Amino acid sequence: MNIRGFFLVMWNLWDPIYFSMTRLRYIEREGERTIIRARLMRYRGKPVVLSDGTVIGKNDLLIKIHLHNAKLLKELQGYNHEIAKGKAIYRHVRETLPSVAAFLESHRRFSEIKGIVGITTLHKGSGKLGFESFPINNRLYKYYKLILLFPIYILSSQWFFKQKMSKPAYLFMSKNTLLQRYGK
Fold first, then answer.
1. Distance CA 184, CA 182 (A)
2. Residue 52 contacts by C-beta under 8 Å, 6 or more apart in sequence?
3. With pLDDT > 90 as the criterion, what percentage of the chain qualifies?
4. Which of 56, 86, 89 is closest to 177 using CA atoms?
5. What is the rounded distance in angstroms from the CA atom of residue 129 to the CA atom of residue 127?
């Protein structure tokens, strides 16, 4: 078994355990599970001001979105080129954001939630979807996330040993932007 196969097996074993230990919920579209899972969280980072004027500060409520990496990796196996993989991820996220908006609108704490956040190395092109990218300033947390995301990098990149891994960043979208772009 090669290193990519090893990491894929390990990731598929770890994912259900991780899911059961977190408060993640599947985001569904037309009864089908999408590539995004979400949970409510309190923001712990430095304050950020989004382009629409929304200020996200310490302890503000956000919906944290997670890509379902195991599912995504299965769907990307048929793609041989990095650009095609990037376009497929972009399309999956774009198609899922209306369901994220519906999840937010139906949440019992809707009025308290300021927006959505994700942490990813896949932040190129995210602005077209309405996200705003901010660096992770806490070095320990940034390296912790880098270590956690490294297996996905190995599994998703055809030439992982030749490319430098992007640094993880916060992706924010305010509640207003999400609902204006993707709400009903």
1. 7
2. 174, 176, 177
3. 45
4. 56
5. 5
- The parent domain of residue 60 ranges over 3-182
Containing H/E element for 132?
A: strand 132-135
Number of domains in the chain: 1
- Based on the number of CB atoms within 10 Å of its own CB, is 162 exposed (0-12), middle (13-18) or buried (19 or more)? exposed
Read off the pLDDT of each residue in 113-122 and give the average, rounded to a whole number.
91
The pTM score is 0.84
Its sign, for the CA torsion 63, 69, 74, 76, is positive
Report the candidate in 17, 20, 65, 16 with the shortest Cα–Cα distance to residue 38: 65
Rounded CA separation 110/179 (Å): 12
Per-position b or e across 70-105, b if 16+ CB within 10 A of its CB: bbbbeebeebeeeeebbeebbebbeebbbbbbbbbe
Using alpha carbons, select from 59, 181, 60, 58 the residue that is nearest to residue 111.
60
Return the bridge partners of 32, or none: 29
